[in-house]
């Protein structure tokens, strides 16, 4: 693996080959957790309710976790909560301005983007978006914030300096998680169309819509150096997509029920956090060749995650659940309740 970069003798090479062959013959559920990554810690944070996305502030290293009507802020050194951003209704995603001072929360239930101060962790204003803003990012070349609205199927573009909406872009379907290359391109998964949409950050236009033969793409990551996108999908598949052409160059197998993806340019590893209680580590052997390096057991429901680009640590969140309530006409697909006090952050390290 590229991240190890140590010379090994022929005997160890042969042993490694034999192990790889043995693993390839097993089923995914029987894959061992051997590899460079391990569960280093579990922080029991508790609290009521569910959660959605989480993100590491690249400036402070603090971990932000959206939890319904509030956002938990956690010190990644101690594993202790240090702040709570309240006054929200139904949070989804987080984005950080490159100014090091400002953050943004997609508050889906209020149809707003909440702007907060990263020093005080207080909301400073709200900006109207579309219906149910979900995925969100900061685009550095244009200094804009992009909120992708799941129900109105469009994107709201906000000028980060003026804190005003400058464009609303219609999309072909329901957007999920976006990524940006930092050079003016934004890419977003379209969940109900099995596509990736390529948008121009300067002109606020759709440049391309690429079918990726990948069911319900949700989590999304990018390798900027090699122009590769990583979309995790139902059916235990990660689609690796050429960000120039939209061509799917590889489809490595991942775990069941993924919802988030990440890419570490230092180790050349892509990650998929899966609801079946696994973290899939996919190694980039070349820009067009990928192999599953490790399947690490985490905890069932740990399907969202965040990668700390400075340390290489991965943070996942999970909880234990009670029995699913009976369906009603008002709620035909009820979710099982989170058991009180069971919410945890799982820390994965090399």
The percentage helix is under 10%
In one word, what is the shape?
globular
Strand content: over 45%
Overall residue-averaged pLDDT value = 91
Enumerate how many helices there are, as a single number.
1
List SSEs in N-to-C order: HEEEEEEEEEEEEEEEEEEEEEEEEEEEE
The total beta strand count reads 28
Structural class: mainly beta
What are the low-pLDDT stretches, counting only 5+ consecutive residues below 50? 1-33
Rg for CA atoms: 20 Å
Major beta sheet summary: 4 strands, antiparallel
Spatially, the strands of the biggest sheet line up as: 1-28-27-26
Terminal-residue CA separation: 13 Å
Describe the structure.
The protein has 350 residues and is mainly beta. 4% of the residues lie in helices and 47% in strands. The protein is built from one helix and 28 strands. The strands form seven sheets. Strands 1-28-27-26 form a four-stranded antiparallel beta sheet, with no helix packed on it. Strands 2-3-4-5 form a four-stranded antiparallel beta sheet, with no helix packed on it. A four-stranded antiparallel beta sheet has the order 6-7-8-9, with no helix packed on it. A hairpin with a 4-residue loop joins β14 (175-180) and β15. The longest helix has 15 residues, at 10-24. The radius of gyration is 20 Å and the shape is globular. 44% of the residues are buried. Residues 1-33 have low confidence and may be disordered.
């Amino acid at each position: 693996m590229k991240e190890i970069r140590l010379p090994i003798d022929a005997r160890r090479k042969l042993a490694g080959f034999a192990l790889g062959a043995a693993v390839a013959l097993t089923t995914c559920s029987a894959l061992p957790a051997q590899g460079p990554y391990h569960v280093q810690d579990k922080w029991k944070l508790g609290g009521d309710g569910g959660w959605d996305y989480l993100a590491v502030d690249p400036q402070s290293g603090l971990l932000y976790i959206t939890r319904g009507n509030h956002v938990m802020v956690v010190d990644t050194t101690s594993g202790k909560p240090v702040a709570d951003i309240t006054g929200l209704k139904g949070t989804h995603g987080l984005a950080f301005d490159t100014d090091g001072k400002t953050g943004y929360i997609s508050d889906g239930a209020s149809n707003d983007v909440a702007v907060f101060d990263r020093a005080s962790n207080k909301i400073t204003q709200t900006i109207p978006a579309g219906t149910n803003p979900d995925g969100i990012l900061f685009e550095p070349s244009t200094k804009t914030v992009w909120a992708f609205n799941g129900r109105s199927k469009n994107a709201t573009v906000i000028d980060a300096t003026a804190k005003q909406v400058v464009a609303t872009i219609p999309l072909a379907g329901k957007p999920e998680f976006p990524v940006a290359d930092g050079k003016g391109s934004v890419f977003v998964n379209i969940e109900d169309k099995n596509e990736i949409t390529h948008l121009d950050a300067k002109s606020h236009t759709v440049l391309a819509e690429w079918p990726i033969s990948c069911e319900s793409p949700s989590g999304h990551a990018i390798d900027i150096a090699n122009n590769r996108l990583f979309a995790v999908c139902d059916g235990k598949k990660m689609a690796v997509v050429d960000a120039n052409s939209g061509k799917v160059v590889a489809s490595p197998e991942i775990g069941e029920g993924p919802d988030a993806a990440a890419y570490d340019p230092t180790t050349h590893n892509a990650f998929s956090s899966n609801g079946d209680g696994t973290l899939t580590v996919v190694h980039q052997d070349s820009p067009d060749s990928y192999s599953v390096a490790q399947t690490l057991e985490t905890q069932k429901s740990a399907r969202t995650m965040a990668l700390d680009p400075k340390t290489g640590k991965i943070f996942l969140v999970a909880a234990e659940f009670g029995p699913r309530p009976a369906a009603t006409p008002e709620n035909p697909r009820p979710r099982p309740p989170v058991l009180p006090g069971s919410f945890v952050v799982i820390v994965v390290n090399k």
